[in-house]
């Protein structure tokens, strides 16, 4: 039985989610809160398998809670959900410690797939949240050099250009040149797309394709 805590800004959304999850079987909603503080208290007390977090609390507030979860309650996994989530926001949540990102407009099947994947220890995100990162790698280009692979790895970790430069002992301008070459060789546009593509290739990100709403 997967125990779920729900932390959402809208009480009616909480009740709707509770009804949907408990009717699915194998899931039990053990708590429902309308503030992040109360949600964190519930996690400390009940240690649920996962907690559903509403992005509407604010990106920075949710990311702070994800950090706290990772540091103090690692046994509870987090799924961030919202009516609208951009590719960049999804990546930031995953890098901050979320195990899943899903839209409130997703189907019940998609939501359950997300929860089940996260409960099984996977990282999960909807295919629809991807834009640039899902483009196929262009053929006919040279493979990435060892240095370019290093830069790509650090981008995947969420590091900024200046931090990558320090880590590799090179100039920030050189990092930008490496990124330019990586984008040209892979056909991926944007560092968020690059990071998500890297997560997918390593099998660290489960994807689900859903119909646009």
Structure description:
Helices cover 50% and strands 16% of the residues. The protein folds into two domains: 2-128, Rossmann fold (3-Layer(aba) Sandwich), CATH 3.40.50.2300; 136-187, Winged helix-like DNA-binding domain superfamily/Winged helix DNA-binding domain (Arc Repressor Mutant, subunit A, Orthogonal Bundle), CATH 1.10.10.10. Residues 132-140 and 209-213 have low confidence and may be disordered. It has 213 residues and is an alpha/beta fold. It is elongated, with a radius of gyration of 19 Å. It has a seven-stranded parallel sheet with strand order 2-1-3-4-5-6-7, with helices on both faces. Helix 3 (59-72) packs parallel to helix 4, helix 6 crosses helix 9 and helix 7 crosses helix 8 (172-186).
Contiguous low-pLDDT stretches (5 residues minimum) are 132-140, 209-213
CATH architecture of the largest domain: 3-Layer(aba) Sandwich
Identify the CATH homologous superfamily of the largest domain: Response regulator
Percent helix, as a range, is 40-55%
Query: Biggest sheet: strands side by side, in what order?
Result: 2-1-3-4-5-6-7
Figure out the total of helices.
9
Q: Give the total of beta strands.
A: 7
Beta fraction: 15-25%
Q: CATH class of the largest domain, please?
A: Alpha Beta
**What would the average pLDDT be, to the nearest integer?**
83
> Order of SSEs, N→C?
EHEHEHEHEHEHHHHE
Looking at the structure, what is the overall shape? elongated
The CATH topology of the largest domain corresponds to Rossmann fold
From the alpha carbons, calculate the radius of gyration and give it in angstroms: 19 Å
């Amino acid at each position: 039985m997967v125990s779920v805590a729900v932390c959402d800004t809208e009480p009616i959304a909480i009740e709707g989610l509770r009804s949907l999850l408990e009717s699915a079987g194998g899931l039990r909603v053990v708590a429902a809160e309308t503030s992040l503080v109360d949600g964190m208290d519930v996690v400390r007390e009940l240690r649920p398998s996962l907690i559903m977090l509403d992005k509407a609390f604010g990106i920075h507030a949710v990311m702070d809670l994800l950090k706290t979860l990772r540091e103090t309650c690692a046994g509870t996994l987090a799924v961030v959900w919202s009516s609208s989530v951009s590719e960049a926001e999804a990546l930031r949540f995953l890098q901050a410690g979320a195990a899943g990102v899903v839209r409130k407009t997703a189907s019940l099947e998609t939501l359950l797939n997300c929860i089940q994947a996260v409960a099984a220890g996977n990282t999960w995100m909807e295919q629809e949240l991807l834009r640039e990162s899902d483009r196929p790698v262009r053929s006919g280009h040279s493979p990435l050099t060892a240095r370019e692979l290093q830069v790509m790895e650090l981008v995947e970790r969420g590091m900024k250009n200046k931090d990558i430069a320090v880590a590799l002992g090179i100039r920030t301008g050189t990092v930008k040149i490496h990124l330019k070459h990586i984008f040209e060789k892979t056909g991926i546009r944007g560092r968020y797309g690059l990071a998500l593509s890297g997560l997918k290739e390593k099998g660290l990100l489960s994807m689900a394709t859903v119909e646009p709403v």
